[in-house]
Amino acid sequence: MKQLLSTLLRDRLVWFVAFGLGLFAIDVASERRMEHRILIDLPLVEKLVAQWEGQTKRRPNAQELDALVEGYIREEILVREARRLGLEDEDVIIRRRLAQKVEFFLDENNPPELPDEAELKAWFEENRANYDTPAKLTWRHIYASDEAQARALLAQVKAGEAENWRALGQPFMLNRAYMRQDKLEMAQIMGADFATQMFDTQAMAVDGWAGPVRSAYGWHVVAVDRRYEKRPAVFAPMAEKIAKDWANEQARIAKLEAWRALRASYEIELVPVDAP
Questions:
Q1: What predicted TM-score, i.e. pTM, was given to this entire model?
Q2: What per-residue string of b and e applies to 172-210 under the rule 16 or more CB within 10 Å gives b?
Q3: What is the pLDDT averaged over residues 233-247?
């Protein structure tokens, strides 16, 4: 046994392995100590004070500062214990909150400086449809249970019974009259086909009852009281809004590009389903 120990002690490989194991043990011990070490430095204290001032509009006194630091220590310990136990892995709310914070980081990509007026005008022309005032209608309707009743109601109002039009037809869950409504607003309420027919200038004259027109709810007798024509937007009065819209669009594009780059940095592997 003594001879074996003597041989081992003279073997450099044994010493090398022992030395490596010693370094590993020291590293593990150091890492464990770091896991249970919380550093309270000046930048952290200044951050806690700034958060306090943002909420209370005054600086904390000594007792309040002690409470802030102790509160941070408590939170840090609990967070580290939660990570050690893997509690965040299966918590949907925490996962979503973490994802949301990364979304905020992607939002921090600052858009470029505003272009000159010529470039901004060019962008405005490309997106003019978003700024033009659309055509609008002021209109009213009588709701019918079916197409036959709608035709009978149309005959009534055309025969001179339009004064009491609100009392005619079936009850309707929404309004019987609408002011200055554009096509999109109408389509969202009554359906796209209904809106298309109502904005047909040849089929729908002003100051007269017409129909029947079918909506998402049923049949209607309708009257267009006033038609407001589309008005093209003018750049100068809207320049400030256009510039803000441009900046928002550039921010959206920058965020999308940042996400695409982030997505491309991950390899996605679809695990095949084992056959039963």
A1: 0.51
A2: eeeeeebeebbbeebbebbeeebbebbbeeeebeeeebb
A3: 87
